[in-house]
Amino acid sequence: MRTLYVGNLPWATTEEELARAFAAHGEVLSARIITDRQTGRSRGFGFVEVNDADADRMIAAMNGAELGNRVLTVNEARARS
Q1: Angstrom distances, CA of residue 58 to CA of 9, 24, 39, 44
Q2: 4-15 b/e with 16+ CB inside 10 Å = b?
Q3: Rounded to 5, what percent of the chain is helix, strand, coil?
Q4: Which DSSP symbol is given to 38?
Q5: 11 within 8 A of 41, measured Cβ to Cβ
Q6: pLDDT digits (tens, 9 = 90+) for 18-65
Q7: Could you tell me where the DSSP H helices lie in the chain?
Q8: Structure pTM?
């Protein structure tokens, strides 16, 4: 399993919409939108967990792709230090 960072998400994107967008290019294990703790509003980025075999293909396909008229930034997530 690998985790992909997805940036520049439209504010109204749901986790289901995020998973559906990536599922066209491989198996999505989970999708998560990061929200502000106080307001509950999307912070405009999220993470998608995918199979190892699909990760590179998904990054190539989705980095620079449009979702809701916004150009996505997709790369492999880095561990928190």
Answers
A1: 16, 9, 31, 19
A2: bebeebeeebee
A3: 25, 40, 35
A4: T
A5: yes
A6: 999 999 999 999 999 999 999 999 999 999 999 999 999 999 999 999
A7: 15-23, 52-62
A8: 0.90
Total residue length of the chain: 81
Residue 23 burial (CB count, 10 A) = 15
Class of residue 24 by CB neighbours under 10 A (exposed 0-12, middle 13-18, buried 19+): exposed
Label residue 79 by pLDDT band (50, 70, 90).
confident
Q: Which residue has the higher pLDDT, 78 or 16?
A: 16
5 pLDDT exceeds 90?
A: yes
